[in-house]
Here is the input.
Amino acid sequence: MADYHWPPANHREFIGQRIKRIDGPFKSSGRAKYTYDVNRPGMLWGKMATSPYAHAKIRKIDTSAAEGMPGVKAVVSIMKEGDEVLWAGQEIVAVAADTEERAESAAEAVKIDYDPLPHLVSDSDPQTAGGDRSKQTEQRVDGNPGQGFSQADVTNEGHYGVPVITHCCLETHGQATEWDGDNLTVWSTTQNVSGMAGEYSSGLKEKGIEIPAANIHVISNYMGGGFGSKFEADTWGIACAMLSKKSGRAVKMMLERDHELMVAGARPSLHGRIRLGAKKDGTLTAWESETYGTGGPTAEGTGHLPYILAVPNASVKHTAVMTNIGPIRAWRAPNHPQMALVSMSAFEDMAAKLNMDPVEFFKKNLSLAGDRGKTYAEELDKASELMEWKRKWHPRGKDGTGVVRHGLGLSMHTWGGRGNRSNCEVTIHPDGSVETSLGSQDLGTGTRTVINIVTSETLGIPLDMVKVNIGDNKYPPAGASGGSTTVSGVSTSTRRAATDALNQLLDKVAPSLGAPADNLEAWKGKIQVKGNPAKSIPWKQACAKLGATSITGKGVTSPDLMSSGVGGVQMSEVAVDSETGVVRIVKHVSVQDCGLIIDLKTAESQVYGAAIMGITYALFEEKIMDQPTGRCLNPNMEFYKLAGIGDIGDIVVHMMTGPGYDDRGTIGLGEPPVISPGAAISNAVANAIGVRVPELPLTPERVLTALGKGGMA
Amino acid sequence: MPHDEDKPRPAGAENDGESRHKENGPHADLSRRKFIRGAGLAGAAISAGTLLGDRVLEAATLPKSADAAADAGGVVGPGEVPITLKINGKEHQLNLEPRVTLLDALRNHLDMTGAKKVCDRGTCGACTVHIDGRAFYSCSTLAIDAQGRDITTIEGLEPAEGLHPMSRAFWDNDAQQCGFCTPGFVMACAAYVDHEPNPTYEGLQKALGGNLCRCGTYMGIRQAVLDAAKSMKGGRA
Here is the structure.
């Protein structure tokens, strides 16, 4: 029997190599069809009428004008008179018309009267927000904080914060839906292909439409970004299916850009005061934090601090504040970037106060990092080398006397990343071609490519002999892609399924090789006696022995092939113009472990991308809310800013591989590298100008305000 | 940043402000501004250029000679009017409301979905097409204004088999993740390299500031442009 465990390093043909993503040509040629690109015969366009108020009661809905407009084929109410709107942009009525422009005009013609209610949209502390909007979600004491502070030689207190930001997926949320009798097809831009039928079934049931999940076909071949915001059918998905049902036509309804930024995902803020105690040699003795965060109507978010370094004596309080903004959705590495920012800033401020090199300071305290301590030490060394930290680092604010000051900063992070539950089927056809099928999805992370690599590695066949089938719920159910769970889910289930299929094949081939199946292996296009290429049969001839019947192997996520828990160290070098306040990224180093890497190329791309996403939220991103009107002021891409190609400096990525890493099996990678950039960059700016800019994003205005209070020794 | 002032500016190059202010003549206002407003694009789609510096195409709309309705001296719409578009060398006859953008005409009426709708107001470049050999935001160009022009979409850029050198360089350098910005980027990069056969690392960062990516593929894109420029030069000789 072929062994399903990961092959040793000297017996891998594809795993760990830099392999180009297999769907790359479709994407770079524009041939890849996304949900937004679906055009069905006779398809209608859906648009929605939404609330201009952040908090209001709906008094009256009048759709008569809209219904009489040219080209309008269906109107459905999402909310009803008397319902309470909890955020601006909340959907009330959906319309479908034969052109996009007519649908837009019809949505505008829906008349809705409101009774406005008091709202809170700004990023307010619990005192301003009031008791009915605040709930204390954490109050914890570890050890003896009083004693810890009395043991300290030095204490430091600072205020740090991160605002609410949003996902800004380039493909907005949405779907196309089409009924055929009792069956519904949904083209959905989703991170949750296998779970989406259930979402629609239960969502439609609430609206009085009974359809079993088994009758719902979900397709998501390509999707234009999710980052944690695309797991559900959503209000608009159910409304679209209802418009389809009512009109008897296919309907496509994608969110407008402004709507997307207002309602389709936000990351909770985190603000607060942190006090730290340490010995002269840098040893941390005490932590005290009192934080709050705003998180939409459900007031989610967390202040589970400190991050990474479990300071022995800690007092921790966090209050969640309910606001009238679009609901929070998981944003890549939920809560970690915020917790990293406030914690790493506090640690680095302490290092500066002690006049210590932060690399030495963090190393001094690595015993507080639990069982990842050794990983962090190795990653700190690697990152230091790539950044040339020793040569470039200077004490805080001591970069000469020029107008533009350089500085270095660092941050560390962690994430779990255990595999989700995924099922896989690998079918070997008598002509030697192979299909691997999972109801998974490729968010752009390289999932297809990883599945291809594992199948080819296991069967010993070239990459192009494998057809990867994902993005469709007719394939075996696979977990949603969130929390860095996909790579282990799909690669271990694929490994098990391909091994299962291979063993069936080896049984068929064994007689002709005169060896027991147990003593055979698949290697470089052949089935051979283990270690003996002379006694072999080419792949296609081996498969021909299957006769007329294909064989299918099955596999499920295999816990013994994967692990959980990674580290990661990032260092940033910035140049700050002290006259304009502009922060420029000079160089950013990301050193990351993720166990056994299946495809080094797309893995590195994840880390490059995360660094850029991190630079973006460090320097530019903020969902700006206007308290008087309750509206978002920047629901567009010119004022909700993303970094451009010239904003990112030079990025260096290093993946930790080899003994101690590979032998852990696979671990997810999507989340961890996006956690540290904000903190590393904020620390670098403090190092450059000699004063902490307490809140992200590090805009020129904030930099100049901080400089007005000190720094620039 | 050194910049050759004599060369035509590609997509995303710094705006000299000249081609943007073109609301001349009595009908220009009617035929462009109101249509754009009618299509739900705030007036900011035009004026944003002054605020955004190098993030804006040099021309958010076409030169006034292409302003067909105004040139004809009449007011058209709001109902559908016949529109002829020359796309990838082939003429297409359509009946469209004058407020329909070139992007929506391509995507919704011709099933050419390579150009993507992302910001829909001239910020992100996902909708980039070539008009008379230069990069344009098709979301900020009305279909009616694009008549009589040579429009190339990514469907036309790609050869029948294989990949355009720029698309191949994007693949080789993994300059794509979710891929939604990618066709627009490929079009902007191809136009840029056509105008600047010897791109520099520094120069391309300025020139491509008019396209945005959310997944963070810029490192790969930088290298793709440099690689493709070499192979495109080879191909031209």
Q: What stands out?
A: Residues 585 and 648 of chain A are 6 Å apart (CA to CA). DSSP finds 18 helices and 30 strands in chain A. The mean pLDDT of chain A is 97. Chain A touches chain B through 60 residues (CB under 8 Å).
